[in-house]
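[step 3/7] fold_predict: job queued, chain A
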Amino acid sequence: MATSDELLALAVTAATDAGELLLGALHMARATVNTKSTLTDMVTEMDHASEALLRERLLGARPQDGFLGEETGETTGTSGVRWVCDPLDGTTNYIYAHPGFNVAVAAEDEQGALVGVVVDPLQSDVFTATRGGGAHRNGAVITCSAKGADDLATALCATGFAYDPVRRARQAEVLARMLAGVRDIRRMGAAATDLCSVACGRVDAYWERGLGPWDLAAGSLIAAEAGATVGDPADLGFVLAAPAGLFGPLRDLLVDAGAAEA
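[step 4/7] structure written:
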């Protein structure tokens, strides 16, 4: 099997190429804008074009690997490596040419995420991590903030909302309760961007419920390798990424606020 460095190099090349594809078409009129789960859950021709590019680059180089993409589903492989890709995380931001969209690529083995890459083409940021190898932004080492339990009231948090309006109303109730306990809350609109923001200290913590594996695989590894504790959604009911000292108090606050049911 290839080394993590070899997989990382391939992931960076593929994700960067996909990011350049998205950036080149950012201000063009959209050929198609369709919806998936709800009227606000949008997908464009660029989501599909980006995923096609990722499939071509990754499986072209490693045809025995598996591939899981948000738009085209899963292709099983035989190598023991599976690529998990979000070709355009933050489609709504992209449609509006608003900052906060990315390409996320992860390589997984039997132990979980081995390599993670998140490319934010509008900000010229390339976030990378390998399991046990730390996290980087544009080649420089990054670490999450050092906040602890005593800093909960001054923690800047990020979150995301569901597409379903009924769920969004419940999440608004959680948000109202959370605002009283932390410094403030940001909503960027792309899970991998938020996880990388935790990794480099742009925000102190991030939580969200109802994400798919393509939303989490790359960004979760980057946040964890930057020193954050990343809670398992299967255990918590939501993903939570925060500095180790802040994780417990923030988790308790979220549970009390009903985040696991929102």
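[step 5/7] annotate
Residues 4-24 form the longest helix (21 residues).
The chain has two domains: 4-141, 149-257.
exit 0
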